[in-house]
From TrEMBL:
Transmembrane domains' residue ranges: 7-27, 33-56, 68-90, 96-116
Name the UniProt record assigns to this protein: Polysaccharide biosynthesis protein
Keyword entries, A-Z: Membrane, Transmembrane, Transmembrane helix
Protein origin, superkingdom: Bacteria
Length: 123
């Protein structure tokens, strides 16, 4: 199995990168706020990545035509924004909007590129 297809690799990279971003986005606030934001975001990114990767694979294969290319990334964007916003708000992350900006953008870009990869290989 190639690294690009390995769910654990996707999850681990997401945890580290997006967790670090969330900690950085909240660094102006006293500890433990940046640490909590980073851990929350890292865990959410890992979990969402696993669910999103599988969701993209299923939707892309089941939706006919260009719907299989367009709708999966839109669903991923909505899932990411909704879950991240709700959980960061509940966790008391001080800079919710800044914290969400990068992970939501990256998740949508990831979803778009990964969906295209799957969609372009369909028979």
């Amino acid at each position: 199995m190639a690294l690009a297809d390995n769910s654990l690799v996707h999850m681990g990279v997401g945890f580290v990168l997006m967790g670090a971003w969330a900690a950085y986005a909240n660094v102006a606030h006293p500890m433990p706020a940046p640490l909590i934001a980073g851990l929350v975001q890292g865990c959410l990114t890992a979990a969402i990545t696993l669910v999103m990767k599988r969701m993209l694979e299923i939707l892309c294969r089941r939706l006919p035509g260009r719907g299989g290319l367009i709708l999966p990334p839109v669903a991923a964007f909505a899932l990411s924004l909704t879950l991240l916003g709700a959980i960061h708000t509940a966790a008391g992350t001080p800079e919710v909007l800044i914290t969400l900006a990068v992970p939501t953008t990256v998740a949508t870009l990831y979803a778009t590129l990964y969906t295209y990869r799957i969609w372009s290989r369909r028979p």
